[in-house]
Amino acid sequence: MKLITCCSFKGGSGKTTALMGLCSALATSGKTVALFEADENRPLTRWKQNALKRDAWDPNCEVFVADEMPLLEAAYEDAESRKFDYALADTHGGSSELNNTIIASSNFLLVPTMLTPLDVDEALATYRYIIELLMGENLVIPTAILRQRVPVGRLTMSQTAVSEMLTALPLTEEPLHERDAFAAMKERGMLHLTIKKIDTDPSMRLGLRNLQAAMEELQQLCSFVCGALE
Ligand SMILES: Nc1ncnc2c1ncn2[C@@H]1O[C@H](COP(=O)(O)OP(=O)(O)O)[C@@H](O)[C@H]1O
Ligand SMILES: [Mg+2]
Is 112 among the domain residues? Predict the structure, then answer.
């Protein structure tokens, strides 16, 4: 089982959304996914409830509440014994012993950030924190910054400047753009299943291209991460 973690000091940087999307991309390629919910606000539990109501939850994926050390340990052991292909950990903002443990146990770390100076400052602080933690523990874990909620159109001068700053750091190949399809996942459930359902829900047919564009971005992110894990 490979553990992929989204972490950032900053709340609202797009961690949970990136994780939901990655889960969907892994599930489309037939992988089983354990989701470790290390955020006491339980966004993934709510996601699953909404998805089940909409018939858009992949039964090859399971949420494990893991917002305390003993729960995390039990979740990890359970998921490993049930032979899940991947585990995705959603952390809360800030630093904590729980987050440190998850980071140090991961096989890949993603640090999502929006392109504002404040967000990028926080992403850089998170990145530095991760590197120091890993060095202290003598670990090498591939880590990449994920540009999240990037405008689909032209970037402003400030966004361009901030983007250029980030090129000095390891980045995922492509960003995730600001898309309604991503924002709606928490209500609608897994994106690939929402797309599948369109056949039976003509009201959404006009939005199909947007959903597919979002799904393609997730598949690119997924191949980038899985490629790095091989
Ligand atoms: N790529 C995106 N496009 C549109 N909305 C997004 C995108 N990523 C995140 N959001 C929205 O931004 C808000 C914060 O995202 P979230 O993933 O919950 O951040 P975090 O987990 O880091 O706190 C949510 O309302 C989410 O729907
Ligand atoms: Mg979150």
Answer: yes
- Which of 126, 149, 186 is the best mutation target for the ligand 1 pocket, counting ligand atoms within 8 Å of the beta carbon and taking the most? 149
Q: Is residue 139 part of a domain?
A: yes
Beta bridge partners of 113: 147
Span 155-184, pLDDT tens digits: 999 999 999 999 999 999 999 999 999 999
The verdict on residue 185 lying in a domain is yes
> Packing angle between helix 157-166 and helix 117-136, nearest 10 degrees?
10
Cα(16) to centroid(ligand 1), Å = 7
Q: What is the CATH number of the domain that holds 184?
A: 3.40.50.300
Whole-angstrom distance, CA of residue 23 vs CA of residue 126: 23
pLDDT of 47-59, one tens digit each? 999 999 999 999 9
What predicted TM-score, i.e. pTM, was given to this entire model? 0.96
For residue 10, the CA-to-ligand 2 centroid distance in Å is 9
